[in-house]
Every structure is written in C-alpha cells, then in structure tokens.
Design goal:
Layout lengths: L1 E7 L2 E7 L5 E5 L6 H10 L3 E6 L11 H8 L3 E4 L9 E3 L4 E4 L2 E7 L8 E5 L2 E5 L2 E2 L2 E2 L9 H9 L10 E4 L9 E2 H7 L8 H9 L9 H10 L4 H9 L4 E3 H9 L5 E5 L3 H6 L6 E2 L5 H8 L6 E5 L5 H11 L5 E5 L2 H6 L11
Parallel strand pairs: 3-4, 4-5, 5-6, 10-13, 15-19, 16-17, 16-18, 18-19
Antiparallel strand pairs: 1-2, 2-3, 7-8, 8-9, 9-10, 11-12, 13-14
The protein binds fe (ii) ion.
Protein name: MBL fold metallo-hydrolase
InterPro entries: Metallo-B-lactamas, Mito_Persulfide_Diox, POD-like_MBL-fold, Rhodanese-like_dom, Rhodanese-like_dom_sf, RibonucZ/Hydroxyglut_hydro, Thiosulphate_STrfase_CS
Pfam families: Lactamase_B (PF00753), Rhodanese (PF00581)
Length: about 350
Amino acid sequence: MVFEQIATGGCQSYLIGCDDTCAAALIDPELSQIDHYIALASRDGVRIRYLIDTHTHADHFSATKELARQLNVPVIMHRRSPAPFVDMRLADGEMVVLGKLRLRALHTPGHTADSMCLQVNDRVFTGDTLLIGGTGRTDLPSGDPEQLHDSLFNKLLKLDAALKVYPAHDYKGRSHSTIAEEIANNPRLQKRERSEFVEMMNTLNLTMPTHITEALRTNMSGGKTVAHLLAAATATVPFMSLGELKARVEAKEDDLIVLDVRERDAYEGGHVPGARLLPRGQLELRVNTELPDPTRRILACCELGYISTLAAATLREMGFAHAVALDGGMKAWRESGYPLTTGRDP
Ligand SMILES: [Fe+2]
C-alpha cells in the first residue's frame, strides 16, 4: 500500500494507493498544496483516480474541485454533501474500489451532517469525527452533538480497536493513534453518557475558524477563493518592480501609461507623477474612452498591488496585450520615499 500523510498547518491530507495497480485516492486535499500532491503521486509511482472530502470543511479550502478539473477524475463525498460538483456520492457502508484496496464509507454525522469515515485495511480516516485526543466541534453549520455521540459510540468506536486512526486535523504534529488509544485516553470520549457528552460539546465555547465564511462559500459551491482568483490573474500578467517604474518616471519615458486604479481621494492624496486615474470599479465602462489605443503599454497600480493585478488581467483579457501590473503598490512606493504628485494631475 502506498501511503503519504501531508500536513498543511493543522490540516492533514492523505494519499493512499494500491501497489499492484498504481491507482490512488487523495483524501481531504488542501488548495495551496496542489502541486505537492501531484508531485508526491508521481514520485510514488501512482496515479490519482479519486478525490475525496470526508466532509464539508469550514476551516480550509478544499482542492477537490480544482484537482478534478486538472486531473479529470471524480470528486467523492457523502451523499448529504451540499456541493454541486460532487461526482460520486457515497452512502453508509458503500465502498470505493481502488485497485486491490477497498475504501469503506461509514456515515458519521455530528461534526457536519455529511461527515464520513473511510476504512481501508488496518486504518480508518476519521475526518473531523474523531481527532487524536479530541473530536470535531459540533457548533458549525449542520453540526449536531447528539449525532456525534451516536456516530462515535455506536459506530466508529465499535470498529476493531487495533485500527489506526488518521484524522483530518492534528495541531500537535502527531501522525496517528488507534481506536483503543482513543477510547482509553481521549478526554472527550470519557463522557460516554449521551446527555453528558452533549452538555460538554455545547459548552466548549470555541472561537470561529478564520476564513469560515469564505471556506463554506467555496467548499459548498465550488466557487473560487480570493487567493485563487488572484493567483489566476497573477499567472497571466507580467510585473514591473517599484525601482524600475521609478527609473522610468525619472527618465520621463512617455511610452508607458501609468494607470492608477484606486478611488479619486486616494489618487489625489498622492500618486506616481504622470499617472492617470481610472478606478477599478469603472474600468470596463470607461476603458474605451480613456484608453483608445490597445497597443499602448499600460502599467496598473493600486494601494497594495492586488487590485492592480486583477485590473491588468482584465485589461489583457480585453485586448490590451501590453498591460502589466506594479509589483507592490502605492503604500510601498510611499514608504520607499519615491516621488509623488498630489491633487489632480495636469
Ligand atoms: Fe471539519
């Protein structure tokens, strides 16, 4: 069996593959690690055939949809998953065939309604249902402490006690434990009585995960994260450094149009000498009158360098083949003590 555990902060992803057939599945992949997973699969001599999320994640960005697009393989989740891009929806007890391996799904609602664990050979991927020394929380959308109690005590913990437990999270650098170790040592499993367990889960008072709104929006819909949009724009745009622009401004080069895409008050507070104002929000509507020559070299700049990247990508999409973005923004320009013009440019 090919097996890799990939940690991203506290999130754990797993690559599991069959030695004989070289078919592999990737469990709970995270968006920032796409190249890492594909490289690991190549190094291990397996081909990723399935992308599996153990549940709708609220704390990180799932890579399943993007990897499915890149690799042309199906996304698998439990049938209760709200995500419209899921290709194969598993019900309790169903299996995914992976060469000679069999991944058996156990529906274990509680952390979320669509949580499932996956058992294969000597191990079980427990998602956020069971963590090492903890359990998933039950206060996020579709969480339910009574269901988690049921899923744990009447299902997961009744599996073979020797099974290795591989959770979707561990914040202390541990790789795995076993069902027996969790039954013996996991503090949350010591409250075996249902009402006590529910009371404990309801009084944890955990802080909300960072990015929860964006994670739920993108993981449930298949929509893009802001970082993903920005990375896609960055990949299509050339950049110019602050120092290079300063040299060109000082040389009074006139083949470059510096386009400041901030709002008017920010522009008038201080802009690159000679820069024109065209706020990002008006770009598409005013571009034909403001920039009649699509062959001109245009450099977009903004406060931090993000919006200008999106603006330059939009300009290139619209046919401005020589649009570039400033690597950095006006904040860094000011902090470098580079020349500024205030008020309206003549
Ligand atoms: Fe989770």
